[in-house]
Amino acid sequence: MSPVLFELLIRSIWETVLMTGASGLISLVFGLPLGLALVATDRGGIAESLWVNRILGAIINGFRSVPFIILLVALIPVTRLIVGTSIGTWAAIVPLSIAATPYYARIAEVSLREVDHGLIEAARAMGGNRWTIIREVLVPEALPGIVAGFTVTLVTLVGASAMAGAIGAGGLGDLAIRYGYQRFETSVMVAVVVVLIVLVCGIQWIGDRLVARLDHRG
Amino acid sequence: MNQHVSAGVADPVRVQPAGLEDVVRLVGLKRRFGATAALDGVSLTVKKGEILGIIGRSGAGKSTLIRCLNGLERPDSGEVFIEGREIGRLGERELQPLRRRIGMVFQHFNLLSAKTVKENVALPLKIEGRPRVERMARAAELLQLVGLSEKARAYPASLSGGQKQRVGIARALAARPALLLSDEATSALDPETTRSILALLKDINSRLGLTILLITHEMEVIRSIADRVAVIDAGRIVEEGAVWQVFADPKSEITRSLLGGIRPQLPPEIASRLVPGEGAETILRIDVAGEAARGALLSDLAAAVPGQFRLVHGGVDHVQGQPVGTLFLAVAGVEPAHLAQVTTFLKERDARVEVLGHVAGPV
């Protein structure tokens, strides 16, 4: 591989890490509260409100049912509004975040729903309010699942960020298509695949370690 | 003792006059779930410092009842007074400080897996907004009380069932409650652990003067620690009184059936041979308790009435320090006329007698 291509590879790795990390973080910040809202407003939840629950659910399902490549294009005006441009790595972070947030909200919802109802009742019996229940019971008890779900979301984002190459976002997927596939640079293709495997394994390994440390359920 | 207020009668007085003495007073509590009435007019009181046990089969309404006391469940009608204050009209926000006056222990412990033992015990104080130093000091003190100081930094998953319940009790006591609710606290534990947990509750009751209301389906639990018992069936209190008196003279069928496991019963091999009318031996059941059980009942009986008296089954229990006896006697060589003499003699001695039947040969 030529030094120029190597430099390109390094830059692409950074772009992929940036897109994955930034949109992952945004999906965590917005997805976790959304997941909490879904569980809290559901039947028997700590802030039961079925119509809020249905509306939230419908919005999330709506975003989740649109294929990412279509979302990428459809969101161009929104991206332009937020980032100022619809091309490049930062521009790709907008559709990636918007796709990952409802995805992560559903994953967080599953973990939060699994928290034993008896624990919520115990906190209520102690005189705790909703905020106490969220802070002391729901989130800490679901934390292993919340972290494991975040790991899954990050890995999914690594894959999705490759598609963002379609809007000139750069990254490893873009590199693989333009150099590895279209220009028959087999070495680039192999390098990209190896880097992606290492990246995904690394994320998964860190996630698993973190979950093991957080999980005291025995 | 018995302050049973008839079901469904609403108390016109909103503030309880004897509010200092009764920690809990329930008046005509009703709660329906669909077609079934979980509570169908429950009225009872719990006095300061006493242990009241509520017993009933599963589905009798026990859990609904205990959850009404801290507002986890809202009755459809009726009133709940906690320390003289009616809580039925309080909103969730107003109930929160009140719940801090009431500790609760659960059947499945309900400890938070992500917190250490000490953090679990300190949680009610955190909810109260106490400073960290105070929380930790109080938690250490309580862990010592329940004998788990060395487990302070462990996580609940590494504890045995009995240890988990000790943590549950320590947590329930953290905010110095006026009332402790125990929701089948020993039902998930083995008999030996059950005994140690009950001993701990009794100890806390006598040492701290803490009022305890417990629900259970096991008479053994009532026998070990309760001062008073209320029997609930199909959402109604069917019987209520001092534990030893209810043990000695259960009035309702459901109480008798719940007592069945721990009070002497006529052995089936004798019961199956019973015939009405006549036989070589007559089988009597004698129930005697309190003062009446302290005298020389059997030798006096033998001296007063001619005949052969043979003890075939039974025994004397001690409940709350009172003897409670059930004896099954085989009486032979007694004319029917004399049999009446036997029962009269025993009744004069405050014993209850029942002629169960006759058997052909010796049993």
Descriptive notes:
With about 220 residues, chain A is mostly helical. Chain A has one domain: MetI-like fold (Orthogonal Bundle). Chain A is about 80% helix and about 0% strand. Chain A has nine helices and no strands. In chain A, helix 1 packs antiparallel against helix 2. The longest helix of chain A is centred in the N-terminal third of the chain and has 39 residues. The N and C termini of chain A lie far apart (about 50 Å). Chain B is α/β, with parallel strands linked by helices. Helices cover about 35% and strands about 30% of the residues of chain B. Chain B is built from twelve helices and 14 strands. In chain B, the strands form three sheets. In chain B, strands 6-7-8-3-9-10 form a six-stranded mixed sheet, sandwiched between helices. Chain B has a four-stranded antiparallel sheet with strand order 2-1-4-5, covered by helices on one side. Chain B is elongated and about 80 Å long. Chains A and B meet through helix 6 and helix 7 of A and helix 2, strand 6 and helix 3 of B.
